[in-house]
Design goal:
The complex is a heterodimer of chains A (about 425) and B (about 160).
Chain A lengths: L1 H9 L1 H13 L7 E6 L10 H16 L5 E4 L10 E6 L16 E5 L5 E4 L4 E2 L7 E2 H13 L26 H11 L8 E10 L5 E11 L2 E6 L4 E2 L5 E2 H4 L10 E6 L4 E7 L2 E6 L4 E2 L11 E2 H4 L9 E5 L4 E6 L2 E6 L4 E2 L5 E2 H4 L15 E5 L4 E6 L2 E4 L3 H6 L12 E2 L18
Parallel strand pairs in A: 1-2, 1-3, 3-5, 6-7
Antiparallel strand pairs in A: 4-5, 8-9, 9-10, 10-11, 10-12, 13-14, 14-15, 15-16, 15-17, 18-19, 19-20, 20-21, 20-22, 23-24, 24-25, 25-26
Chain B lengths: L25 H10 L6 E2 L14 H5 L16 H13 L10 H7 L3 E2 L5 E2 L5 H8 L22
Parallel strand pairs in B: 1-3
Classes of the chains: A alpha+beta (about 425), B mainly alpha (about 160).
Chain lengths: ~425, ~160
């Protein structure tokens, strides 16, 4: 028992790391934190799998709003585990702060360290009614370990008192900004971004058009809720879960050809493209002439090179604009060919409004946003907004398709954060 | 084991043997305020070695000896205690009476996290201290950002 305590409390590596962080005084400096529910600290009230599921979800909820990943690690040496969780009662786990039995104090956490839960409390798993939600307590205590103190604000997860919750709770805007003050906001390049347009009938039977915004990266994606300034709760989720029949990762582009006579949606990856069936929510297996998907890009879009960097459809000109390196190709869908005088350099077709403030080439995303009625070019962590018609009417001096100065993507689309791949599928 | 009857253990009842001591009088209220840092920030050492100084020595507090050296008739009703009680009432949206009324006792007995409300860690700079003290203002977040208007939907 003594050896265990020494190992737990005094391993040199751990102390050195803590002193380094203490000097900084604020937060973990690593981007991937390992956690473990320690074997001596299982609760007697929930199954081990339930306990581990709740902690996985609690860590995921933080990872969804901050640029840190959390991974459960049940094999590495103890000293390499950043956050250790355990249940105990009264005097427990070598801790100097004794629990008080059922009622009042239900857990405590050590800044940059361990979390202990009072097993005399009646902790419950999500979706069960009475008792204390282990998930909510775990999210609160993880907040402490990450560096947050108590916050006396209605709605904050860091309020000291436990507040029962009818339905699910989530980290609100202020808690997100509080943790991002310590760890920064989430940034990084996207593979493609698009608004998915749907036709629906409203309660009066009228045909209405709705759209949802989607951000794709690697093998996962988020739906972005523009009116809430955040992603959908629970995102990101695997591409394979939400989009059947398209490549499960690294999509190059999405294009929605939408005219009075056509309504076709295409996904591009490498030298191939897929057409997507919006009604049945899956990729078509073949086209109207029986040609199987995926099809080569050169076959349906002659003159367009592949692979492409990105693409978008301009409903005014009825051209698909394909981007590759420093060139842009305008494909006329009515003549089924690249328009004359193309390709052009991106710098010439999308001139910089402020000299030299331009992505030049290798564009990650060309995103037409219905929310902003504007086209955005993404590259890396930044975006350039293309001057739209309204802006040009207000300021005729702005060039056609001019690019306004770059801004950080995270300043306009908030809290789009990765989670560790082990937490992608819950 | 803890007593339950239903298959999913949802009706589990604690044995009742280990019950937390509830706040019920001036002494227990003053211990609560001291324990959770309302009288003065409690050192909350980040290192796990737990070489935390013992919680604020209550005896000085109990003797009613205030910094000014005045002695008081009832040991716990010192200005320090009343000021701490008011701070607690204010931050918990209770009527600020400075008296140990029922509403305050109920608030003190609610289930809560064991981390003190006002704490210092050796690593924390003084700046963090002042941030902690200003009520309702979390570390660094600005209040003028509008709250996301929609209530959380189920995940």
């Amino acid at each position: 028992k003594k050896r265990f305590l020494d190992m737990l409390m005094y391993s040199n590596k751990y102390k050195k790391e803590q002193e380094e962080l203490q000097k900084a005084g604020k937060a973990f400096s690593k981007k991937l934190l390992k956690w473990r529910l320690i074997g001596e600290g299982y609760s007697s009230q929930l199954s081990i799998n339930e306990q581990r599921y709740v902690f996985r979800l609690a860590f995921r909820m933080w990872s969804e709003v901050m640029p840190l990943d959390f991974e459960e690690d049940n094999t590495s040496p103890f000293s390499q585990i950043d956050i250790r969780l355990g249940f105990g009662t009264g005097r427990h786990l070598g801790c100097t702060r004794t629990f008080d039995g059922s009622g009042q104090e239900f857990a405590h956490a050590w800044f940059l360290g361990d979390i202990h839960f009072d097993d005399d409390e009646h902790f419950t798993a999500p979706n069960s009614d009475n008792g204390i939600s282990l998930l909510k307590v775990a999210v609160h205590e993880i907040g402490h370990v990450l560096g947050l103190s108590h916050i006396h604000r209605t709605g904050s997860i860091m309020q000291p008192n436990y507040i029962p919750q009818e339905s699910g709770f989530e980290l609100d805007w202020s808690d997100r900004k509080a943790i991002q003050t310590l760890y920064g906001s989430c940034e990084g390049p996207f593979d493609t971004v698009f608004d998915w347009v749907r036709m629906e009938r409203n309660q009066y039977g009228e045909l209405v058009v709705r759209y949802n915004s989607y951000f794709f990266r690697n093998s996962w994606y988020w739906m972005y809720e523009n009116r809430n300034n955040r992603t959908r709760y629970g995102d990101p989720i695997p591409i394979s879960t939400g989009w059947q029949g398209i490549p499960v990762q690294n999509i190059d582009a999405f294009v929605h050809v939408w005219t009075w006579t056509r309504d076709s949606r295409y996904f591009f990856k490498g030298a191939l493209f897929w057409r997507y069936d919006s009604e049945n929510d899956k990729a078509y297996s073949q086209d109207t002439q029986g040609r199987r998907y995926p099809r080569p890009i050169y076959e349906a879009f002659p003159g367009v090179p592949s692979p492409i960097d990105t693409a978008f459809f301009d409903r005014r000109t009825q051209h698909i604009y394909f981007f590759r390196d420093v060139l842009v190709y305008a494909f006329d869908i009515n003549r089924n060919q690249v328009a004359p005088s193309f390709p052009k350099t991106i710098t010439s077709f999308f001139p910089a409004v402020v000299p030299n403030n331009h992505p030049k080439g290798s564009i990650d995303v060309a995103y037409y946003s219905y929310m902003h009625s504007s086209l955005f070019l993404f590259k890396g962590k930044e975006f350039w907004k293309v001057v739209n018609e309204k802006e040009r009417r207000n300021n005729p001096s702005l060039p056609l398709n001019g690019l306004l100065p770059k801004r950080a993507i995270s300043e306009q689309w908030f809290d789009i954060c990765n989670v560790h791949t082990s937490l992608l599928k819950m | 084991e803890k007593l339950f009857h239903s298959r999913d253990h949802s009706d589990i009842r604690s044995s009742g043997l280990h019950q937390a001591e509830l706040v019920s009088d001036l002494l227990s209220a003053q211990q609560y305020l001291s324990k959770y840092g309302w009288t003065e920030p409690v050192p909350w050492d980040p290192s796990r070695s737990g070489d935390i100084e013992p919680l604020e020595d209550i005896s000085r507090f109990q003797q009613g000896i205030h910094d000014s050296g005045q002695e008081f008739a009832e040991p716990t009703k010192t200005p320090l205690f009343i000021e701490a009680l008011k701070k607690f009432q204010k931050l918990n949206n209770l009527p600020i009476t400075g008296k140990l009324d029922e509403a305050t006792i109920n608030a003190m007995n609610k289930p809560r996290c064991g981390v003190p409300d006002n704490q210092t860690t050796k690593a924390r700079s003084a700046e963090a201290q002042t941030l902690l003290k200003s009520p309702g203002n979390p570390v660094g977040s600005s209040e003028n950002m509008n709250m996301s208007p929609n209530p959380p939907k189920i995940r």
